[in-house]
Amino acid sequence: MDSTSKPATHPEPFLGRGHTMAGVTDKISSIVLARGLKRGWIVGLMISFALTMVLFISVAWLFAKGVGIWGIEIPVAWGFAIVNFVWWIGIGHAGTLISAILLLLRQEWRTSINRFAEAMTLFAVACAGLFPLLHLGRPEFFYWLAPYPNTMTLWPQFRSPLIWDFFAVATYATTSFLFWYVGLIPDLATLRDRAKRPFSQIVYGILAMGWRGSARHWRRYQDAYLLLAALATPLVVSVHSVVSLDFAVSIIPGWHSTVFPPYFVAGAIYSGFAMVLTLAIPLRAAYGLEEYVTDRHLDNMAKVMLASGLVVAYGYLTETFTAWYSGHDEEWFLIVNRALGPYGWLYWLLLASNILIPQALWFASVRRNVYALFGLSLVINLGMWLERFIIVVVSLHRDFLPSSWEIYAPTFWDWSTFVGTIGLFAALMFLFIRFLPMISIFEMREMVEEHSEPSPSGRGQGEGA
Amino acid sequence: MPVDTNQFGILAEFADAEALVEATARVYDAGYREMEAYSPLAVEGLPEALGFRRTGLPLVVLVGGIVGCLSGFALQYWTTVVAYPLNIGGRPLVSWPSWIPVMFEMTVLVAVLSAVLGMLAMNGLPRPHHPLFAIPAFDRATQDRFFLCVLARDPRYDPRTTRELLERLGAKEVTDVPQ
């Protein structure tokens, strides 16, 4: 309703007028190069570092005692570790989506959010990658997953989705890192050239690898960046599809479903955009970046979230319909147990937070209200975590054999490990925003160059070449 | 013309991207080939003005992707058929449909690595030091200024006439770059 009241007017630009190359360069790089630390930053890092310590303690205790300190049991052998793994890796997907897919689609609004979304991907994948290793039971043998010649003459089972998962996540982590780093190179050179202190000059200088903006370098750089985006696009779809195959290839009711890959990918994008908003809204307020991350950026992200949320809702619907239509007793029992069983309240909470409440995003007034948007992003983060909990725990706790039914309850160590990874994620984010430019400086310069030209005639000659 | 071994080249600063592209094209027309332009962002038409057209990087990435795909297949074929055959309900050992995910991931992984390493190698990076880094004004090549450097190794290079040419083309500042 709201959006139709102001129709044909030109939408507000992603970057206002009056910006210069020197201006954007100075604004973004001085966040990093300024001396001293902001009080809010110190407090934030302190809290998140304390939580990181909680993670380290939990992991140390886990290594000492084994996975028995967690609530996992038979039949719920997967528990929190896998819930958290899927949740974190899903969050990572929005970063790749923003940086790769929106680049290929030439969506210029990605420019001011891609850098920290990519960093978010990297840190989320790091948190995700911890869980399967911790869950191994004998984490010291994690390298057995890799195919390498060994004295046992054992090789991985390549028909198993768990090995596909290892390859997918390892490739995803590598690609995300390289994409992020390649994107940083010109900005690191800017920081090198602007830094006043020798130490900063040396560190940024080493990281920039001698970038000097040569035209030939730029051409190869652009080729490489576009190719990376083109490679990352199918990769990101494959990663969560492979994660979903960990479930779908099994025969457990609630897992054995062909809708899983697309439904998981949509859920990943949904939770990822929610996390981008959770980070972007406080960050832009804290660093005064409203002119770069405008309300229109938030509005666009909210729209992507709404669309992917509807795909997720369709996934829930299909699951339920298929269970009924299959005429399979165990499948249908799972649906009834999901809604009315011991964990039923979580299912209704899931439906509320993933489907019902986000419908508010249809209203432009909600999408334009940062507080509402921030609140919604937290609700969706919670909802997506609940979704994974329901898929993992509720499907397992009552399967084919009633004699083995159990109630799963997480222990203190389950919670401390989970909260600890949130701390690790936040601590890495805090370090990132202090030491690296959170907005891509050179891409902002390109935006300035494209937008600042008052008369198109002045450009004609240069572009014709 | 004798080559001055103490000289790297001559650096001209321009106000904006259009001026740089224009000047580069004119210097190229004047017969200079050993030159390089520097800008804080990728400027359309600038590589072409330097006579640089194709990068060859896409080919490197294609080869990398093919190598990755084939090595993914070879790895799985060898381990499941030769090194560690497992008879699972009499199903064929060459269970290639279940190898697709790993082949795909290997394709992407090797292609990505060849894109990044190929880009760096072709660009001659990392290169910690470069004669231009000694020029204070060049710091702004990564911020908001545009530069053209004619290298001393160009056969047409002459300290005086090259400088005059660059000044005539509207350079704001022309600096000698020592080796």
Sketch the topology of chain B as an H/E string, one letter per element: EHEHHHEHE
Q: How many H/I helices of chain A?
A: 16
Number of helices of chain B: 5
* Helix content bin of chain B: 40-55%
Overview of this protein structure:
The complex is a heterodimer of chains A (465) and B (179). With 465 residues, chain A is an all-alpha fold. Chain A has helices at 21-33, 39-65, 79-104, 114-134, 161-194, 198-208, 215-248, 260-286, 295-326, 329-340, 344-356, 364-367, 370-397, 412-435, 441-451, 460-464. Chain A has one domain. In chain A, 69% of the residues lie in helices and 0% in strands. In chain A, α7 (215-248) packs across α8. In chain A, 48% of the residues are buried. Chain B has 179 residues and is α+β, with helices and mostly antiparallel strands. Chain B folds into 2 domains: 7-54 and 132-178; 57-122, no CATH class. Chain B has helices spanning 17-29, 46-49, 57-83, 100-122, 159-168; strands at 7-14, 35-38, 146-151, 173-178. A 4-stranded antiparallel beta sheet of chain B has the order 2-3-1-4.
